[in-house]
Amino acid sequence: xxxxxxxxxxxxxxxxxxxxxxxxxxxxxxxxxxxxxxxxxxxxxxxxxxxxxxxxxxxxxxxxxxxxxxxxxxxxxxxxxxxxxxxxxxxxxxxxxxxxxxxxxxxxxxxxxxxxxxxxxxxxxxxxxxxxxxxxxxxxxxxxxxxxxxxxxxxxxxxxxxxxxxxxxxxxxxxxxxxxxxxxxxxxxxxxxxxxxxxxxxxxxxxxxxxxxxxxxxxxxxxxxxxxxxxxxxxxxxxxxxxxxxxxxxxxxxxxxxxxxxxxxxxxxxxxxxxxxxxxxxxxxxxxxxxxxxxxxxxxxxxxxxxxxxxxxxxxxxxxxxxxxxxxxxxxxxxxxxxxxxxxxxxxxxx
Length: 351
What we know:
mainly alpha, single chain, two-stranded antiparallel ribbon
């Protein structure tokens, strides 16, 4: 039944604010992002500067970068990669080697070099796996997994890079004559990098470029029919994700003072997948939350004597339950699917 004109006008007036603009639903995602920012700032103060806990939260910040890089591939573009650690570990080895052999560890040189290494390596892999005509998701997943596994086995038997023992005593990261040692200073640096990467990625996925990625994630054949060069967009976002993994690998290598074969293998690649799925893929902040939850649980459970031997099993069951019964992750409990999908482009006045 058609509503009377007056009723329709009343509804329309009710949907508008007093100033005449449309009433917008309350958005939860920015609040979650703000809370996480406050937690990052307050964490060192709340922890009382305890060195082992500062090390833990610094690792969380660095691994969050790896999780965000996976989220860009899978959560926003539908590219399933099981080899994201490859672009994390190789740059970590590169900066460790130039520190050992050339004595270079200046921040203005090594961090851009790590980003470039991750970018170029991901570009080569993407050209091989994604530039063909409609490569299947299984082909890409197994291809990246194979690359990660092959790289891990290669460095495990290569004595120049430390073989199975990896490279230890990595030269400290420097800014001029100042050296970043493990502690509050390194945590601050990692937070600055994470914030810059997060804001850049947020701007990317909410741009017109992000709109195309969302279309590719939903139906890449339809986008190709409309004239978009789908494979080119996939190669670009995969390469950018590799660049983010690269700077994460460099920070990890400097912070730990060590890089080994396991830092580029399927184990860490799978961790990145779990971080993202647990927190909520396709949100960016979900990847950060998932990383924090898993790393804190790992730290707490591994420290309890009675379950020390069983904590990986317990953690695995918890993760399996969440993924089975809450596919949208932890963030899906508070953020609607409509908000997670988001809006794109510039909002017109009065729209």
